[in-house]
Amino acid sequence: MTDGLARAASALVLVAALAGCGASPPPSAHQAQAPEEAMTRVGDVLVRANVLPTTIIGEAVATQYGVERDPGTVMLLVGVRRDADGGETALPARVTATAADLLGKRQQLQMREVRSGEFIDYVGTARVIAPDTLRFVVTATPEGGSPMELRFNRDFFPR
What we know:
Residues 1-29 form the signal peptide. This protein is an alpha+beta fold. 16% of the residues lie in helices and 48% in strands.
């Protein structure tokens, strides 16, 4: 399997795990859609970020990530990886993030490290009142490395 196919398969497994774990989600104020990944690369280091309405993740995943499922809350999930010949390896990092809505109201996200086996993810939540667009700025500094910045927008719509 090529790296591209492996990444696509991994993304599909993540979406299925996030959407399918636990009991059925309650009605959401957001459209449930496959997460759109934002990514930046410096050398062999990748920073990937996804934002998901917390109502589309299952109870087990919400518990694992320490996130409360709520129609007005979205979860930012950031991974910092070294992309080497044999695949990706999780890297410890310092991750900070902000989210700002269309009116300019800015939220500092409290990012926390979540470990699961060999994987390390960084998770934070933001409040949103749909319809709105949140502008995210994520800064990840891998251990012993330089800061990497990722900027992206996500739209949220009432359901």
